[in-house]
Amino acid sequence: MKTTTILAAVPAASLLLLSFSQIVAAQSTPDAEAEAGALPIDNHHGHRPPHHGDQKPNFLVFLTDDQDRRINSLDYQPLVQKYLRNQGTEFTNYFTTTAMCCPSRVSLWSGQFAHNHNVTDESPPHGSYTKFVSQKLDQNWLPTWLQQAGYSNNYIGKFINGVSPTLKQAPKGFDTAHWEPLVAPNIYTFYEPVFSINNGPLTSYKGLYQTDVISDKSVEILDTLAKNKTQPFLFVISPTAPHDEVWLNGNGTIFTPPVPAKRHEHLFKDVKVPRHPNFNPKNNDKPSWVGTLPRLTDAQVSALDAKYRARLQSLQATDELVERIIKRLEHNGQLDNTYIVYTTDNGYHLGTHRMYAGKQTAYEEDTNIPFIIRGPGIAKNKKSNAVATHTHFPATVLSLANLPVPESLDAHSIPVLENKSIYGKDQPTEAFSVEFWSQAFMENTTARFDANTYKSVRLIGQGYNLLYTVWCTGEKEYYDLVEDPFQVKNIYKSTKPAFLNRLDALLNVLRTCKGPTCRDPWAVIHPFSSSNKDHDHGKDKTVRSLKDALNKKFDKFYAELPKFHFKECLHYYNPTNEETAPRHTEL
């Protein structure tokens, strides 16, 4: 049964009141293959990615931790610039959709938003490796799909929080080659890292710098992989820099600035956090706990500058790691058929909107992250403004490997290749959700804030760049980043209701989207119809973007749609806590 036939039979105003399961049921062919996510998306359109003959390409991923993009950390990594920026394409509109380690990393490998994989925190019961394993998320994710296609999958460094002496076994997909995670409580200790190889005994490297140990081990792994010229590989290298050093004591978790390698301690002595307009501003109109923050003191600002320098210093060993690995790939004859990606799990703020240090918000500093790729068919020394998120990553890798892409993924491939014909008529990503359900905390302080649950819709297209957020407190904020790139002024109250109605409708779809509804949310609001004349009910197949939806003929239609709100501020995802109310209801 066709999706369009079912959806067209339901008035769009009613469709947005349907439960998540009802919407999905209206979109899916009810057979076992579809429910298992086995139906492929044809991302190739008759074209094949540029590989060495019939040999599958390799994939090497540098995955750092808490690395900012918006406060310029990449500008202090000359080797990343030389070997990746200059030799590849940087995606400037690349985002994490949940700005915290565990949810973001699971989205990266699963291709799902956090409301679908439900790893929403750093520790149990709602996050960590314990949650990941209990939900069996490794049964159906990128590493297992690559493994089934004959790839050798290898991992070294940080996976997610919760890999411990009693829970360190490899997830499926990384269980047949080399699995060497950092193990708690020494995941974030720079001069005393602890690793375990393939669920073996713990090995401590006291006195050795973590990134250097990872560098040495990575070269050995590459040399082993080079012995089998015909088997393709996925190799993930994940140092924890520039994340804080983290210790556990009787008072709980202690965060201290990252520790650089001794050879880099002298660098950047005069560098300070960029004083963007949103740095410790005089006026603060933000909702929830962010709006209650006082201005940072001079002493706090000085401490942030020192932390910024420590972060940049700690990334220098990562910079050297990148050069060493790329040179080794070249030495081993592996470079020309390898896609190399440099990214991180989430961004980071320092002094933004008076916040001290951390992540966990929907603001640009926390969500807009580095993503650079080089390899066969990738344009060199180019910046792309194509919109993408971590949920796009699995489809991107599978497409480059010329492998089937499961229909269940929440995003399609990033258009990374210079030859765009391979992507056919794929709808560019315009909108996606940013979501969070946990307590906020300021790193290096004892400050904790409960009301940090929110859902946002992010829209980026030709001539517009928007962020709209609904908080669990009932407060809302809206920014036009074309006019206000640093999100200084919340213009929600001065924006016309007719425009906000469109954003509410889009958020209402994205907050529970799955698979096709995430990839094309406008098709839920404006389902295809056999006739384009039924505009009063939103049935118009020409509406596939915000610009299309702003046609005045839809004003009444959008005014009648429900809007989304939280019942209360919970620190975990509970669908029953997130509901809709008629548009005219004041909350």
Please provide a written account of the structure.
Keywords: Hydrolase, Signal. Pfam families: Sulfatase. This is Arylsulfatase. Its EC number is 3.1.6.1. The modification 3-oxoalanine (Cys) is found at residue 101. There is one protein chain. The longest helix is centred in the middle third of the chain and has 34 residues, at 298-331. The chain is of the alpha+beta class. Helix 5 (78-85) packs across helix 11 (298-331) and helix 10 (210-226) runs parallel beside helix 11 (298-331). It contains 18 helices and 24 strands. The protein folds into 2 domains: 77-430, 3-Layer(aba) Sandwich (Alkaline Phosphatase, subunit A), CATH 3.40.720.10; 432-531 and 541-581, no CATH class. The strands form 8 sheets. An 8-stranded mixed β-sheet has the order 5-4-8-2-11-14-3-15, with helices on both faces. The protein has a 4-stranded antiparallel β-sheet with strand order 17-20-21-22, with helices on one face. A two-stranded antiparallel sheet has the order 1-16.
